[in-house]
Amino acid sequence: MKYKRILLKLSGEALMGDQTHGIDPVKIDTYAKEIKKVFDKGMEIAIVIGGGNIFRGISGASKGMDRVQADYMGMLATVINGLALQGALENNNVPTRLQTAIKIEAIAEPFIKRKATRHLEKGRVVIFGSGTGNPYFTTDSAAVLRAIEINADVILKGTRVDGIYTEDPEKNDKATKFDSLSFDEVLKKGLKIMDTTAFTLSQENNLPIIVFDMNTPNNLDNVLMGKNVGTKVDL
Q1: Which residues on adjacent β-strands are paired with residue 99?
Q2: pTM for the whole thing?
Q3: pLDDT tens for residues 167-189?
Q4: Nearest to residue 208, comparing CAs of 12, 55, 2, 33?
Q5: Between the CA atoms of 196, 200, 201 and 203, what dihedral angle is there, to the nearest 10 degrees?
Q6: CA end-to-end span of the chain, whole Å?
Q7: Cα–Cα distances in Å, from 90 out to 76, 97, 100, 218?
Q8: CATH class of residue range 5-234
Q9: 3-class state of residue 234 by DSSP
Q10: Which of 23, 103, 200, 235 is deepest in the core (most CB within 10 A)?
Q11: Would you list the domain boundaries of the chain?
């Protein structure tokens, strides 16, 4: 395998499947099976999930809610998704721990860097919930932060498209795909991969990002085998 320890970033919307909101049990089981394929090869896997399928803080704030309260609601949505994915992984015989930045000790461990690292070393998948635990920070920022803290080799951002394009390929079928980009090229071209805070943090810590289509069977495994899948961003 090209990498040993990865941070997989999934959007909350990815869990909806064909639904308009919530969690599709079939879709989340499919993701669990894809993760199991690479887990069974000895990969150390940490995961951060968004909460947009349940509640998005910035969206609530735009409709008049207090931004801080709305962001905390969004953080709780990521915990719900984390619990769902934990259940799906364990149903597929993948030992999993859920850690949260906000203490909810009845259902999850508090985030402790050393404990998270130890879980990974012992062959457990670790899901990080509730973002960074702070309002005004996205789950993209949480993914990069946790990846740095656990010394991940790469961030894998699973999306609905198979990489980074010149334009949104869902809106323009003539958009062309990049196989690789430098951090500087992403900034110069004005490409939107992550929010600015997350992207800058990744760049400053020389942490590569691979954007790929999580919905294509075996794509996660192919990325980790070093095959030409998705788009890689690094120095």
Answers
A1: 109, 128
A2: 0.94
A3: 888 888 888 999 999 999 999 99
A4: 2
A5: 140
A6: 21
A7: 21, 10, 18, 20
A8: alpha beta
A9: strand
A10: 23
A11: 5-234
